[in-house]
Amino acid sequence: MKTDVAIVGAGPAGLSAALYLARRGLGVVVLDEYFRAGGRLAGQLYENPKKPPGQRLWDGKAIAEKLSGDVKKAGATILTGVSVWEIAPGSGVFISGGPCQKIAAKAVLIATGAAERAMPVEGWTIPGVMSAGAAQVFANVHGVLPGRKVVMAGIDPLSITVAGELKKAGVEVVGIFLPPPGILAGSSGLPQWVIGELSRSADMAPGTFLKMAGKLFGGSYREVGARLCSLAPANIWGIPLHLRKAVIRVEGEEQVDSVLTARISHDGKIEQEDCRIEADAVCLSGGLYPLTDLIAAAGCPLVSMPGLGGMVPLHGPLLQTQSKGVFLAGSVTGIEGAPVAIAQGHLAGVSIAAFLGRLGKGNRHELDRAVEMVGQAREESPLKFYPGADGARKELAALWDRWKINSAGGNYA
Amino acid sequence: MLRIKGKDREKGREGDQITFTFNGLSYQGLAGEPIAAALLANGVRTLRHHEKSGKPRGIYCGIGHCYECRVTVDGVPGVRACLTPLKEGMEVMSERAGEVTSNEN
Predict the structure, then answer these.
(1) pTM
(2) pLDDT of chain B along its 105 residues, tens only?
(3) Which residues of chain A are within 8 Å of residue B4 when distances are taken between CB atoms?
(4) Which distant-in-sequence residues (6+ apart) come within 8 Å of B91 by Cβ?
(5) Do the Cβ atoms of B60 and A130 come within 8 Å?
(6) Which residues of A touch B62 (CB under 8 A)?
(7) CATH number of this structure's domain A118-284, picked from the four choices 3.90.850.10, 3.40.30.10, 3.50.50.60, 1.10.10.10
(8) CB contact under 8 A, B3 and A144
(9) Interchain CB distance below 8 Å, B61 and A116
(10) Which of A68, A71, A136, B77 has the most CB atoms at less than 10 Å from its CB?
């Protein structure tokens, strides 16, 4: 199959780029491993308090349906159930599960989004243990609950949101606990760090549960201190949130029947085993990280940016990479919400049109406008997944400039 | 049942009730939902047994990334149950210890 642009990922970023490019008259093929387009939009439903009244509802499912419908109407092809294994910069992508093995394309957009960081704990392979994101997909998208009595391990915006959604759907959420302490949990196993992250990221969060958490921890230092000293759980709408207890083992033979918790010291060490809690499902949450496998295979350097969720591909302000003709959009550039991904997808679309010489004279302002729209989407974003995102983006921009000067033969030392 | 009441109709996405088998037993599911969702709704948590240890394994990531949910569908091995839509009459089988060679440790 031959086209102008191959887009990997039919989530908000990939679809919005496809829409722009197809409307410009370019050939576009969008590829996704899931059997339905829309990516993680499908499970999202919340109100954004930063938007004017009347525009606050974010119905991800409806947005995904409209976007993919518009993309098809504009003439792009969406192939679902297709895995992309390799990018050949300048020539296309290699796939399995589709009508052919290679999509030849002049430009490639990587919009692979994010994956959840694994959070292993003893017994985590027992059936009934799943990631927080999996529980969200099964409950919100497919209408199937992970269990009747669920324990959540890992305290972050995603885990609190999912716990709230499960409770609303009728699940008994026994409690939200710290992840098992150790090298894998790192600072996310430290009570004080968790409080700091939540208070910074959740004050304007969508969804009542997360907002409650923000208020709970956004208070004075004295309150935070008291919370740290207390072994009693905080309470978010009837769900106990344990800042001094961690899940240290999941138990059960054929499936989960209980978890073992332990008391955790201020500096994140196990003080003593606490109790065994009955449960038929456990959700583990280790946070999201940019899904960079493909872009790394394409030879693009990755840089460590904890403020963006982990390793991110080095990229420029127009979402271009060091590989000519390979562009990025969405959470693969750093963990952010769907509205930012949509704005980035549009920018990548304009940027790719310019790269292919199809933007047209007098349309350069579209690029500036698209950059502005990404900034605006960030400002209106109700949830910051990682508090250090702004600083990390500046650092990344500086690294890109240094690389450009260096690759042009300049001296940046 | 772990299926949220009224959710299928409310969402209006998945299709009709259909019948499929898992390890020879007959189950009901909704056409078009992932095989993993249909099995979970029926209370089936164990999708396969580990190739070396024989220990039970089920859904982990739910988005095709971890490959823990691989099953044999209509004779095709290594199919991810979380990514594969359910169809009428599908024959789904666990991959049991010793049946499939694997590099997994």
Answers:
(1) 0.90
(2) 689 876 544 444 557 899 999 999 999 999 999 999 999 999 999 999 998 889 999 999 999 999 999 999 999 999 999 999 999 999 999 976 555 544 443
(3) 139, 143-145, 169-170
(4) B20, B21, B73, B74, B75
(5) yes
(6) 130-131, 133-135, 137-138
(7) 3.50.50.60
(8) yes
(9) yes
(10) A71
